[in-house]
Amino acid sequence: MNSFENVTVTCTDGYSLSGRFYQSKQSTKNLPILLCPATGITQGFYHNFIEWLTEQGSDVLVFDFRGIGDSLYSSLRDSNASIQDWGLLDIPAAIQTLLEKTGQEQVTLLGHSAGGQLLGIVSNYDKVAQVIAISGSTGHVKGLKGRTKRMAPVMFNLVFPVSTLIKGYGATKMLGMGENLPKNVAKQWAQFCSKPGYVMNAIGKTIFEDYHAKVNCPITVYWSSDDEIATEANVKDLLRLYPNANTDMIELEPQQHNHKAIGHMMMFKKSHQNLWPIMAEKIYS
To answer: Are 225 and 254 contacting, i.e. CB atoms less than 8 angstroms apart?
Structure first.
């Protein structure tokens, strides 16, 4: 028996997103949590972590962004989904759905990577009481480290254009970077990371709603010292976009928590569950 309810999140443009609603395992006054996934990562990846959150007393909604996982309804090459769609359409609809499910007035937005980077273009940003951004950063190519710094130009400038031309989508599976991506997601990912500021690179061009300066809720980024994407420089690049928000960045050192590595993804795995109380500290404090 599933520990969650399958839900449909209907966006203002009529697109339906596949989601899962997990009900708290205890009565609580905690705000409900909206978990927004990373680029190319499906909702099921977060199951164990969400189960733990429900044990702490939180209702949680997670979903697949359009063009990803169960929110892809046709051939991937036919998907016109983009990252800006995720921020302009998907996240606002998910916030509204969670509020309606719980009868609450605000949510905690817990975003992984891209899922925590888009609040500045979310129209109902005022319904977010706080942001917990796990591995949240702008991903600016000059701020990357290690193998990812060497691989990013190849992925953005060669793999994406060639795979889009031949297959009609951005090939990321073969690189170990999650699900293959709709062509416009791949294109915007490359564009947004080419300069500092991520989504700011589209403001006034393809995005005409900019709420970054209006966001005044607390924003906390948890990042790992061995993360090659959400590096210290790239985390700071994200937080500077919210001049009127109280921001904080908390570094996780693998060795201090008895791990060989944490990176960009591993903090959600059961093997790293000793990190979960740290990642959720601001939620339950």
So the answer is: yes
Spans of all domains in the chain: 5-139+209-284
Cβ burial of 62 (10 Å; 0-12, 13-18, 19+) is: buried
What pLDDT score does 23 carry? 96
Residue found by looking up tokens 């480290």 in the block: 145
In this predicted structure, the answer to whether residue 239 has a pLDDT above a threshold of 80 is yes
Burial class of residue 277 (count of CB atoms within 10 Å of its CB; 0-12, 13-18, 19+): exposed
Is the distance from CB of 25 to CB of 33 less than 8 angstroms? no
pLDDT attached to residue 1: 62
Q: Which two tokens stand for residue 154?
A: 């190849």
Q: Which residues pair with 10 in a beta bridge?
A: 16
Instruction: Kindly report the CATH number that applies to the domain delimited by 5-139+209-284.
Output: 3.40.50.1820
The pair of structure tokens assigned to 111 is 């975003």
